[in-house]
Model the fold of this input.
Amino acid sequence: MSDPAGSPSTPTPPPGCPAHQSAVQLAGLEYQQTPSQLYRTMRREHGAVAPVLLDNDIPAWLVLGYPEVSYVTSHDELFARDSRRWNQWDHIPPDWPLLPYVGYQPSVLFTEGTEHQRRAGVITKALEGVDQFELARECELIASQLISSFSGSGQAELMSLYAHALPARAVLWMCGMPQDGTDTESLVDDLRISLDAGEGDDPVAAYMRVGERIAQLVKEKRERPGPDVTSRMVQHPAGLSDEEIVQDLISVIAAAQQPTANWICNTLRLLLTDERFALDVSGGRVSVGDALNEVLWLDTPTQNFIGRWAVRDTQLGGRLIREGDCLVLGLAAANTDPQIWPESHVGAENSAHLSFSNGEHRCPYPAPLLADVMARTAVETLLERLPDLVLAVEPEELTWRPSIWMRGLTSLPVQFTPSMH
Done:
């Protein structure tokens, strides 16, 4: 196992190290077209907890089983979120691709214990103040504006023109950003780049700009609070500092934007390619809800989440997990665990999936409900406005992004009868 920084003096990992046990290379795997097959194979060969190698051959554990993921997420005293516990930091190069996700930041994501309860409590309270009917109305408005921008042409690429833009604008509206103007437009763009950089994008610079704009927003809301998430966080009796609020707002915005965008797109793909839905989708709203839920089971936007760090040596799924080891939560694998679906039939009516995780660090209530409002409104409004929407390519020509972390299409080209309104 070579040292990522290239120095030959790195000691060989001890025999207990996952690197010695035919660990699976997670980095660079282009298996994204059918990850479910990969998870099945891994489960067969390694059981519920598999040794894996992240970028630069950094060892970690991928937790594949539904009971095991549930156990890890509900036992914070054993598997904690503060990544400074990691026993691999000596081997992590400064330009490591996963650093944005695991490098410790003073945000709610990395807090533990009472500090986590304090920070998460502020977010929960602030989100609870969002009126779901008002959010649905706003999403309908945003959806209509976006659809009007391409409805005259008879064709569109929905990933960039619709699915990404709608949740970004909706969450910024919830946070109290003015909806008109280039300011919000450029913030929406920077958000996309920082979370999901394409060729030639600079995600670090985009992330810095997002941070600066959100800091400005917090300052504005301290001076002139309004009926929005940011103002409620500012005014919360827990008395968070501006820096804490900025960090936590960015976490909320990022969590709302990209997973919801992929949830919308993955649902549209299902509705447009699966004949079970094709028959009644134009008339029946029921099947949109079914499709949204089925996607959370079978094509969940967050496939794998990094991660948790072992507080002490412990056992999990028959493996010895050492203190400081990194665990990657295999949410997608857990959702399709054959132990919970013996007939390999996933019930659309059941919502016990782990797509929003669970335990102390799950997506804070009522965030999943708000995400559902955004995704459902986006899908329903599009189908109402463009009832003869069809794919512009063959279903098998659609490609998934080469990522083991998220499940999203590279693009979703569609065509429809052009409309002038």
Observations:
- The chain is about 45% helix and 10% strand.
- The mean pLDDT is 85.
